User: What shape does this take?
Amino acid sequence: MTAEAEIIAGLQGAGLTGEGEIILEPLTGGVSCDVWKVETPTGPIVVKRPLPQLRVAAEWLAPVERGTSEVRWLRRARGVKPSIAPEVLAELPTGHAFAMRFLPGCPVWKDELMAGRVDVPFAGEVGRGIAAVHAATAHNEGDRADFPNDEMFRALRVDPFLLYVAQHDVELAPALTALADDLSGRKIALVHGDVSPKNILVSADGPVFLDAECAVYGDPAFDLAFCTTHLLLKAVWSGDARLSEAAAALVAAYRTGIDWEDAEEVLLRAGKLTAALLLARVEGKSPAPYLTDPDHKRIVRDQARTLIRAPSPLGELVAHWKRTLP
Ligand SMILES: Nc1ncnc2c1ncn2[C@@H]1O[C@H](COP(=O)(O)OP(=O)(O)O)[C@@H](O)[C@H]1O
Ligand SMILES: [Mg+2]
Assistant: This one.
């Protein structure tokens, strides 16, 4: 049976298709899974199926881990606030695929930003949304037990983004290795693991978070740092001050949601992680595809290296971020 036929059979088994023709249309997929929009007589849905092997790092990771953690994250996040994640409709029997509700008319935030449509208050909503999930799951033994994905997080996040750069940079290696150890050791809240503008839909009810394959019980500062990094890189790419303002709004809104520990500590860890992630996006295994201009890379690299050596809390980092060469 083809992948498509298996998916259709699975959807029929779950009672999601009704009578009539079913059309599968591939959505722009990433490296780790197949994603289809499925037109059914009862309305459009999305089916996502992890590929048996990733085309990037960590070939050994079983699809079951990634599919299951994503479904669990989506359900948990909807339990915190229903508008921030798509509704999971069914887990399908083949290949750990699942079906979720298709959100019509919701652009991907990255496309909006790259087209110059920078909605600063929306960035604040993103910060509030991530913080809400972190606050709801902080110091929660049940959530900790539900997301025991340390190995996966190490393979897909810690190794490629922090340790890879450490291995190629003798001077920064001690700081980056210490940061990787600290990140791996903190078990504080449920982390999404891939809060990037390309995984956020812009809906009338605010941000909708997708693509939680890297979800882990860990350090919430990581999600904040990951998303801020993307906005700061795009600020350099476009030179647009509103992207720096969006980063500031994200951090400020997130900060108001921190109720599980001292906010200053979270923001200091997030500042260190952001510095490391910025460097990883110009020197690491997974460079930002749009930062090809050598001047842009230099702007990011010079600031990131300085910040790794002399960390600053994330609010300050963002306030001092330079988008252009001096
Ligand atoms: N529930 C949904 N409603 C509308 N579009 C979706 C939905 N889920 C995914 N998409 C679209 O499919 C794309 C890929 O989905 P994503 O979960 O990010 O998978 P990948 O791992 O391939 O990046 C998203 O960027 C978005 O455009
Ligand atoms: Mg994605």
Notes: Residues 271 and 317 are 7 Å apart (CA to CA). Residues 3-101 form a domain with the Phosphorylase Kinase; domain 1 fold (CATH 3.30.200.20).
